Amino acid sequence: MESGDEKIIEEVIEHVRRSMPVTVNWARLHRNKLRPGHLLGNRFRVIITDLKVTAGEAECRAKAIAEKLMMYGVPNFFGPQRFGFQGDNIIKGMNIVKGRLRVKDKWLRRFLISSYQSYLCNLYLTRRLESGLFYKVLTGDIAKKYSTGGMFIVEDAEREQLRYDRQEISFTAPIYGSKMWMARGPAGEFESEILGEAGVTLDMFDQVKVEGTRRLGRLSLPDLQVNIEGSNLVVSFTLPKGAFATSVLREIMKTEP
After folding, report:
1. Domain 78-143+154-166+173-212 maps to which CATH number in 1.10.3470, 3.30.920, 3.40.50, 3.30.2340?
2. What pLDDT, in 10s, does the model give residues 70-111?
3. Burial class for 78, CB neighbours closer than 10 Å (0-12, 13-18, 19+)
4. Where in the chain is the domain with CATH 3.30.2340?
5. 169 CB-near residues (< 8 Å, 6+ apart)
């Protein structure tokens, strides 16, 4: 590493230190630029302080919750940080999609629309939970294999339910867009209801040139661990790229982290 590279790294670390309440333990340059899709996942080790109950009680409660999370998984919600202050990004993104707002900056425009897509995805997951459908696959679901990432249409829900229960597959949630792979049958009707209630059509996404995609609906947490260190609760787990640690921590803490 050349001296100029070291200076760049030091400047980046200092910029992060001034901008955010985080500590950078190390950083280094790589000859290839990190682009979307390069990241496999993230390992988290989160220390929860200022417990409202004794450490022993916190550990007991958290481990009981962790057992259920490992058994059933967690909805792959987008975190609230995605939506801006008081959800402003959602409103702006919705207005862009509906043709009520024009934003010249391409990056900002895409970011705001993405926030609105994330909101609709969260709404879909919420409705699936409320309807008791988070714990099962539906005929017509677009399912995804945890092991390979391969996706397929659920033709026989009863057969695929066994694989879902073994956490071999998950349903996928819609990131709505003009070229998104739509679910079929009952699953497709469920997805369309969300769009209908929002007053949005796929043609509107086509007008703003947003193609859409599918998102893993359920997070699997096979390595979730909960321990006490001193008077703090330590939670460790691994998530795939694009997943938010806050979705797991909210379940453990039973509050917004």
Report:
1. 3.30.2340
2. 999 999 999 988 888 888 999 999 999 999 999 999 999 999
3. buried
4. 78-143+154-166+173-212
5. 137, 143, 144, 145, 146, 160, 163
